[in-house]
Design goal:
This protein is mainly alpha-helical. It contains nine helices and four strands; from the N terminus they run βββααααααβααα. The protein has two domains: 7-146, Four Helix Bundle (Hemerythrin (Met), subunit A) (Up-down Bundle), CATH 1.20.120; 152-207, no CATH class. The chain is elongated, with a radius of gyration of 27 Å.
Length: 212
């Protein structure tokens, strides 16, 4: 078995990392909070300042929920600890949480308007969140932090089986055409066990005519 350079999450449910499942909550809520703050600047409707408070509260709660699982991955995955971008990602997210808490404290007891300071805090939080989100994407997609290992031998075997099926004029069952992933895997195992020849249909026909 040859595995790739993935670094699976240590905080996962059934193989699914928990941190990436939770981070859309603060990302979405805090980005929308900045948007509602902007709208509130040009509107006298009290709905918008209230909406900002609700979104800031949801964003702070989501960040608090996501942070421990991200910290577990950071502290238990050696490759993550070696990457400066991982520490910048973590530190930036803590800063976003601090800005959000300060923003909520500033608005406490006054949901009728959004001050310029509050708007500034929302802007800084959303901007910093964009940076930390980009860093998080780099950790996952470039450095494969939190990504499940893949058995490359299995996939290479499936690719070979695809080629053999196509050589005989059939459709590629292993690639999943018309089959569930489980059925495709069973087909791949059966074909591998049968050790199908790689000769083409034309060659097979010539062999038969020659033998006759």
């Amino acid at each position: 078995m040859h595995n790739d350079d993935s670094h699976p999450s240590t905080a996962a449910i059934l193989g699914h990392p928990i941190h990436p499942m939770l981070v859309p909550i603060p990302i979405g809520a805090l980005t929308l909070a900045f948007a509602t703050d902007l709208i509130a600047q040009g509107s006298s409707d009290r709905f918008w300042p209230k909406a900002s408070q609700w979104l800031l509260t949801a964003g702070a709660a989501g960040a608090v929920a996501a942070a421990p699982f991200g910290a577990i991955d950071l502290l238990t995955i050696r490759r993550a600890r070696e990457l400066p971008s991982a520490w910048l990602h973590a530190g930036g997210n803590l800063a976003v949480l601090g800005l959000t808490v300060a923003n909520l404290a500033l608005r406490r007891g006054d949901d009728r308007r959004v001050s310029r300071v509050g708007l500034g805090l929302s802007a800084m939080g959303a901007g910093l969140l964009a940076v930390t989100g980009w860093l998080g994407g780099e950790l996952s997609y470039r450095h494969r932090i939190g990504v499940m290992e893949r058995d490359t031998d299995t996939w290479e075997s499936k690719d070979r089986m695809d080629g053999q099926i196509d050589a005989f004029g059939g459709h590629s069952a292993v690639s999943g055409e018309g089959l569930s992933p489980l059925e495709a895997e069973e087909v791949a195992r059966d074909l591998a066990a049968a050790e199908l020849p790689t000769q083409t249909p034309d060659a097979t026909a010539e062999d038969r005519s020659g033998g006759g």
